[in-house]
User: Fold this.
Amino acid sequence: MFIKTLAAIGGAAMLAMAIAAPVSAQDAGGGNLGSANSDPTTANQAQRGAGTRLQREERQPRQSRQARQQAPALPTPEEAIVAAQAVATSASVPCQVTLANYLGTTPDGAHSYEATCATGPGYILMASTPPVAVDCVLLAGQAEVDRARDPAADVGTQCVIPQNTDVLRVISAYATEAGVRCTVDQGASIGKSSEGNLIYEVGCSGADGFWIEKAADGWKTTECAIVTTQNATCRYSTAAEAAATLKTRIAGSEAAPCDVTEGRYMGANANGSFFEAKCSAGNGVIVRFNPEYAVQQVYPCETAQRIGGGCRLTIVPEAPAAPAAPQ
Assistant:
């Protein structure tokens, strides 16, 4: 399986940046109060000035009360859930809203919410036309990419409800759906394929990780040992974890005596997939696996020159030159 070109998901961050600060009741201040005229020759003017000051002081509380009365009331938690659910449903998002925080309005006046869902990721929801739903995991992934490029980058509105910031919870669930059998210890959204499918990186504790792609017909998985040969990078997997995975796969086979210190994916054909293993002692091997990673054949590096160009991790001594023919 070849990794497809990633498409930026910056549009999600740009949408979230459109959200303004929450609407709240503000006091309508009357500015600085005037002072009475202190000219002793104009007592009447002074009295009128004092009267004006008193009128201002009396009018100020009324203005504040009017401002509070005119400011729109923030929705109750229950009202926010109902409104957020309406946006999620209109946007065709499979989310049963369990909690919603009102975020404010967009410049166009659309109300916005952060919502948690009974399952899966949370969303930033905007009651615009058309309605917009932005996945919290996608937002977090884009923010991570942007900050890696520029630590001071403005990453826009981000989800802050604890359930929504638990990206590992969502990625672990996706990994289980995709059939990944490992203890997931890291994960992130990393973009989209050229077909528009969402792609996530899954980090595994002590083992090689995966890229998982959410296609229309189900999940597609690609282990990081293969990803790294497709001009891409896995951030959450190490060479040692890839070697440990290869060592586990050859256990009980002819290649089991090899204490794998380094592994390399070589490619695949109709006969299976091929990996080279460098051993801590002795010669390395090339192993052919079936799709379930059962060992099908083992080729010592000395005799594997014709298998995908031969071994690269192990230096194989050149065969001794044939003796010269007698004259």
Notes: DSSP finds eight helices and twelve strands in the chain. Confidence is low (pLDDT under 50) at residues 1-14, 20-54.
